TrEMBL record:
PROSITE patterns: PROKAR_LIPOPROTEIN. SUPFAM superfamilies: Periplasmic binding protein-like II. GO terms for molecular function: peptide transmembrane transporter activity. It comes from Streptomyces ferrugineus. This is Peptide-binding protein. PANTHER family: PERIPLASMIC BINDING COMPONENT OF ABC TRANSPORTER, PERIPLASMIC OLIGOPEPTIDE-BINDING PROTEIN-RELATED. One of its GO terms (cellular component) is cell envelope. Belongs to the bacterial solute-binding protein 5 family.
Amino acid sequence: MFNRIRRLRQVAAIASISSLVAGCGVLSSDSTEEEGPIVVGTTAAPSTLDPAASWDSSWELFRNIYQTLLSYPPGSTTPEPDAAENCRFTDNSNMKYQCELREGLTFSDGHTLDAKAVKHSVDRIRKINVKTGPAGLLGSLERVQVLNDREVVFHLNKADATFPFVLATPAMSIVDPEEYPEDKLREGGSIVGSGPYTLSSYDDGNQAELVKNDSYKGIAERKHSAVTIRYYQDSPTMVAALRDKKLDVAFRGLAADDIVDIQADDDDDLQMIEGSGTEINYLVFNPKDPMAGKSAVRKAIAQVVDRPAIAHKVYKDTVEPLYSMVPKGLTGHTTGFFDDYGEPSTSKARKILAEADISTPVPLTLWYTSDRYGSATKAEFEELKKQLDASGLFEITLKSRPWKTYVEGYQNGEYAVFGRGWFPDFPDADNFIAPFVGEQNALGTPYLAPRITDDLLPNSRAQSDRANVVKDFEDAQRILVDDARLLPLWQGRQYVAASSEVSGAERALDPSTIMMVGELSRKTSW
């Protein structure tokens, strides 16, 4: 049987040999172009091609085609200049951030990329103000000032040490003012960017073909000149394509069964790369719903839900239970939901409902997306229904929709309770709290929490040293636990399945777990 430790030892041995002979050119990870494009499979198809509309995994595509002022070199959690030559706060209060662009930048259509294009790109996000779009990331921005062709200044309305991280998100992709209107979204199935690759063709929901952008100036590696990204509805179909050699890499949406099967497989043609992750999965309660809007109902659900059972039964321990919105590994993580609720208890939940004079069973409909987070999502919600129904306190109905219509539904407040996943915009606890609170947030469900938005987040953002913000984030999470408007369920790890002939997958994921496809290559020898 396949032994994962053995495979890792084999990889380590190969790496050791490579280091000895690299100087002689005996082994190389450079790809030969005759072999065609690297083909990557994922279940996360873009919902839009316009950065002003996206605060979701459309960023996977954006990161590789558009360019941002700052980005992440492999292995780094600190953003560094990409389209910019340098960036810095120019004051001591973290309220004025200035960037100087590289010389000679152009878009893929040949138009000049200058400071005016940067201002246009950021300003249109706020002007168009798409519901659940990325405008919420710019809450601390007062205005954008163009000093000259290459210099731009971001004036903030409050101290914000996280602003460089915001500029490094694909939401802040720089777009061509001649192609992207200032007051409406761009239509069509093409992209004009300045990133490491250009989009040569796009079949919505099915496939994107990328080719190397020869005019790119930035820090991204391009170890292969062409990459094809194929979008799948479920993990089994995607993994079958990988086994049939129709894919080189499978990422995002791998089901637990498929991960375990590949790890246990005796097929030396495949490898499974595993890494720590900060992806989280959680439930959202609509405060306007007659039942989900009741604090006691939400707390009773929090008291019944068995996270370890979900992690083990549904995800085969490829995820771990999560008891706060801030995942383990980040400054400010707590275990607030476990501290308050402990082990699942029907008797405690019954008492919560009885004290609020709520009759049981409580009828609720739980919604999930059928094609966004992988095929295990359905099984996860079936397990939630089983747990809640078994308590005798709830009567659960399950419903689902494809992602695009699912988003419209929660934006319109149609769901009492719905599931969401979150892949971080940047590696800071701020990004697991700020996007979910306030009048405008990533959920389309206003969550007024003035103590968080007016005090705790501003206090934390004034601190350049993020080790000094622990108390602020602990206090913010205390509020989230008390309100129980958001119910964290699990924290994921990162898995990439790939042909054994592919290298670079372990370096391809940035801190927000977005894949930089240029890091991928085919191994060649002699």
